[in-house]
Amino acid sequence: MTFVSSTKDTENLTMTLVTEFAADRERVWQVWEDPRQLERWWGPPTWPATFATHNFAPGGRCHYFMTGPDGTEAHGWWEITAVDAPHRLQIEDGFANEDGSPVDPLDTTTMVMTLEDTPTGTRMTTVSRFRSADQLERMLGMGMEEGMKEASGQIDALLAALAA
Predict the structure, then answer these.
(1) Which positions fall inside the Activator of Hsp90 ATPase homologue 1/2-like C-terminal domain (predicted)?
(2) Degrees, nearest 5: CA angle 144-145-151
(3) Which of 43, 46, 76, 164 has the largest count of CB atoms under 10 Å?
């Protein structure tokens, strides 16, 4: 992965992460579309993800949990709100209970992931939009930015392993 940038915009309540990969757009799209591939990179390396459900279609729901080094589980849910393969994906994202139900249905972020061709592969831009400045600061304080960087850093190994 080539890390390009990470930008926090407190005025527009967004955080943008830009990375590039030496693979075509269709191949990078698969790391989101296939739950077994998604499990190999979503979450920091010390908090691997397991997707209990993964309905990758508009209106579909996903329930995942990340398991920490001490066995602690952190659950999350997604609602897929738009899919334009292999270009754009939009997700509502929130914390979940163990059964995948939202902890607080109003405490969500909207994540828009866009893939673009580059001369050497694919650029992935992920924009997370927050509901308030307090939510943005709370999520960044929990390590969201570093976690997303670490998670994205695992995609290269996945792309290389599956190409071999």
Answers:
(1) 23-159
(2) 85
(3) 43
Q: What is the mean pLDDT of residues 121-130?
A: 97
- Give the relative orientation of helices 133-141 and 144-152 as an angle to the nearest 10 degrees: 60
pLDDT digits (tens, 9 = 90+) for 18-77: 999 999 999 999 999 999 999 999 999 999 999 999 999 999 999 999 999 999 999 999
The alpha-helical segments, DSSP class H, found in 34-108 are 35-38
Q: With DSSP H G I counted as helix, E B as strand and the rest as coil, what are the percentages for the chain, rounded to 5?
A: 25, 45, 30
pTM (2 d.p.) = 0.93
Are 157 and 54 a contacting pair, CB within 8 Å? no
At 70 the three-state DSSP class reads coil
User: What b-and-e string marks burial along 66-90, b requiring 16 or more CB atoms within 10 Å of the CB?
Assistant: beeeeeeeebbbbbbeebeebeebb
pLDDT tens sequence across 86-120:
999 999 999 999 999 999 988 999 999 999 999 99
Backbone angles phi, psi at 157, to 5 degrees: -60, -40
